[in-house]
Amino acid sequence: MSANFWKAPAYEVPIDKAVRVELLKLHNRDIISENGWPESFWNYVQDRKLLDGEEAQHVIQLFQKLSPGEPARCHMPPWELAFYDETELLFTTTLCFECSNAYVYTVHGKDLHAFDVSEPHAEELLAFLKQEFSLI
Length: 136
What we know:
The chain is α+β, with helices and mostly antiparallel strands. Helix content is 18%, strand content 29%. The chain contains 2 helices and 6 strands. The longest helix is centred in the last third of the chain and has 13 residues, at 120-132.
């Protein structure tokens, strides 16, 4: 098993530079190919909402505080987060709260991390995403 599974999703990403977050609801709950990053992501997006200010900082902090967890085999993410600095996209991540996995996508490719879905930051992030985007 890869050592990356035991690292939190925010490990080795420029999360400290993020000032805006885009919430993305995905069509098919699929693993997204890293080919054509970031252009390939937009084909999977059903709905999107850009956050800045306090709302963005809240989501950034929740993501940053996700704890490492046990991975599972599925990855059918209904949501993706895109993190931006003042001018450009830094990285994106798809989150599956069923399998505890997060794929983190950067210009260098993708990396799989597992997170603890039962800890408070994950539960709060899931509640926030459900409030913003119904899965129906």
